[in-house]
Design goal:
Blueprint: H1 74-87, H2 90-93, H3 95-129, H4 139-147, H5 149-182, H6 196-223, H7 225-245, E1 249-252, E2 264-267, H8 272-277, E3 285-286, E4 292-293, H9 296-305, H10 323-352, H11 355-360, H12 365-368, H13 372-403, H14 412-416, E5 418-419, E6 422-423, H15 424-438, H16 443-471, H17 485-502, H18 504-524, H19 526-530, H20 536-551, E7 566-569, H21 577-586, E8 592-599, H22 611-626, E9 631-637, H23 640-650, E10 660-664, E11 688-689, E12 692-693, H24 708-720, E13 724-729, H25 736-741, E14 747-751, H26 766-779, H27 782-785, E15 788-793, H28 797-802, H29 810-820, E16 826-829, H30 831-836, H31 839-847, H32 861-880, E17 885-891, H33 903-917, E18 924-928
Parallel strand pairs: 7-8, 7-10, 8-9, 10-13, 14-15, 14-17, 15-16, 17-18
Antiparallel strand pairs: 1-2, 3-4, 5-6, 11-12, 13-18
Length: 938
Amino acid sequence: MIAQNNARSTNNDPVESSESYPITGGSNGTGTSRLFRQFGSLFSSPAATNDPAGYVEFGSISDPVASSGRTLGTFAGVFCPVALSMFSALVFIRVGFIVGNAGLYITLLQFIIAYVILLFTVSSVCAISTNGAVEGGGVYFMISRTLGPEFGGSIGTLFFLANVVGCGLAISGCAEGIIENFGPSGGTESIIPDGRWWRFLYCSSLNTLMLIVVLIGAEMFAKTSMMILGVVVICLLSTYISFLTQGPMDVSIPHENNLVNFTSARYTGLQAATLWSNLHTNYTKDYTSNGNQVNFAVVFGVLFSGVTGIMAGANMSGELKNPSKSIPAGTLSAVLFTFLCYMGLSVLIAATTTSTLLQNNFLFLGPINLWPTFVTIGILTATFSTGLSNLIGASRVMEALAKDRVFGPLMSFVIKGTYKNNPIAAVIASWVLVETILLIGSLNTIAQINSVLFMLSYLATNLACLGIEITGAPNFRPTYKYFTWHTALFGLLGTAIMMFVINSIYALSSIILCLLLVIALHLFSPACQGAQWGSISQALMFHQVRKYLLMLDSRKDHVKFWRPQMLLLVASPRSCCPLIHFVNDMKKGGSYVIGHVKVGEFADNDSSNDPTIEEYTQWLSLVDHMKVKAFVELTLSKSVREGIQHLIRISGMGAMKPNTTILGFYDEEQSKDFFEYEDSPYKTNEFDGNGIKLFPYRKSGESKSLGVVEYVRIVDDVLRMRKNLCLCRHFHRLDKQMIARNNHIRYIDVWPVNIFEPKNDDPFDVVSQFMMQLACIIKMLPVWKKLELRVFLCESETMSENSAAFERPAEHRLDQRLKLLRISASIHKIPEWNKDIDFAKHRNILKQFTGNSDSNQMMAEENINRSKLYMQRINQIIRDRSNATAVTFMYLPTPPVTSSVDYKEKCHHYLDLLTELTFDLPPTILVHGIDAVTSTTL
């Protein structure tokens, strides 16, 4: 409310008038919940809705209106995409590698571990998916709308990279299958040559073919996923039948395997001896990765890379007729189906194939199949469809990141490069990155990178659900009933542990990259500055702050840990920007509240809303513009005085209620608008619109709505409410930039003497120590640290005579006190104090204007004039020593008591004397402390 930066008199009225502020930036519809538009493509982006906020009307997930245009059921929309993604390149190409190295026991254990992690993550996916519509972007969409743009953008980026790596993995598997069937393969017939760069050429050709399909017929592929899964299942059944019917045979070793001297290995058919020999681990070298040694981590990384498709169903929510039922049912059934297939395949492989063959020919399923062509078709369809799915997914995640402006203008080319809702630029960019991944060559190495990146995505998904559940957000009401915080926690811990088990370097690198992205997005991303989809950080902070506020007991406060908690009362921030900034410096980590009183009445017959509600957002914008760490409190009251009483009582919470109230000084000096002043560091047009200025202030010639007596009563109210008080004057002169670059300004001054009533005992009382504490706090900050703290010792002859009652003179006692308080300050005695000023002569006169007066007599005109001359003389002494002073702290005497005779006149004289005392000084703070705030003990 009040907080004018005034001089001998300021034109700033410390009160806000009863006029209502104009409101700008009203509702434009972005604050209301809206439905995403329907998507025509399987992998369409959330951004295609033209809804930058990404809002979803949670209650309308199953609404018939919302479901119009949604045609997919559980089987086609969820089961098929998930099962197909989880088969990928693993089912026909690497299960034998896993069994041959890890043994059947460890293989089954690894599948159980992988699927337990997946099961817990599926619970989190189902929880988020059934709590609101999940559109394109998969993990990115879920996490960004849950954890916020910083974590969402970083995890979304890693999820994009995971899809790119997954595409490279599938292409490598597809190329491996082609070479095995049409390359040398250790035999005499060869249609195509083999070699490292030949393989890269085949992979690049497949990648280019996928690029063409995505650019032309991606939607057709999405609609045929059910048929593709059928083909893969038929090929898999042919493998099971072959294991049960085929007899012993020799299988040739691939041409690329130059680690062994033999050319073939034995397939035995179903035999107990073969099963027994394959039960235990037998790690060897990987012939596809330059002979690198295989171990548990390598095997698990390859295994997990093949089962990372659990998000495929959640990505389909925009196309599903009933997402809340289809996603859990379809995903869980696909997980169970693939788990049984893998377990059965592992047992049959262990019971029929020697470890020598399993370790040296990863594509042995073709030669031993009754119909070898089925395995070839299975490999090509499973890998090609998975790679195509990943390429489409990667491009759609990139499109979502671009349209959410996560990386600002850096990805604007993606939006510009969209044709008929197909993000061509994103597809091409993803294709280029896949080419880079293909340079790695080894499928098993790519698989480990793929596993770590997908695990990090799953970790973040579990973290999102765990955070929401812990905070107890009322709007988190998933219809999936089997989710608890336990499942999210186990999923989070499982993914975190297994990331490091697979490859600690890859895991640590991905986490560091994620954290760097979080920091960079928080600092620079436009999405983080204006995202409207919410952040879990706010919910977590609310949860923790509430808990610790309840634990913070004001009855246990100790002076050693005292810190200023400021309530700055502001009428119009336009004219007191430097003061707002200065108080922010003076709070020293304490709470800071900017309070404002709007004069008016909340009438019963008035249908309009409380005006403070509408103005609150403007004040929050002001805090952002000023870059101060402050809360805002507004109140509506019939008078300024009553409103200030409200603010003092209700501001803050618990033990964090303000203990210090700050007001601007009451005078007639002309103020200036710091939002318009050309050289002002606070200049802005943000609060000017349509010819209307927000935060109006009293112009020259306008009458004040707050009188002198009411102002003095406010001062008295603050002290009687047991709050420390600061009256600030001349702060329109404060220029922190000049202090930083100008060596002429060198001091912070403290005058610890009550000019109205100099004491005859120890002059260093609670008020003096309080102002020294504030001065010391200011000096701790970087801009103020270079200034010297000066304490002026004002000792009269009368005080000197009475100082005999003490063992040492006042100067020595002050020096000792400063040392005990660890305050680095120089002490300056004032010679004129004894020569030119007679305290004894004026002491009884001055007391009449303060709350310490026992006199109820009328004040003589002569005494009033003598007091003014006396104040002018003291003012001159202070001014003579303030040429290089940045800020001056002075002792504020208590105002006259309300019961005194001629109280109103005394109020005028009290304020006049303070005006004379502070005339033409640097920025000045008149301080009155209530309680001790310093401690000399550890």
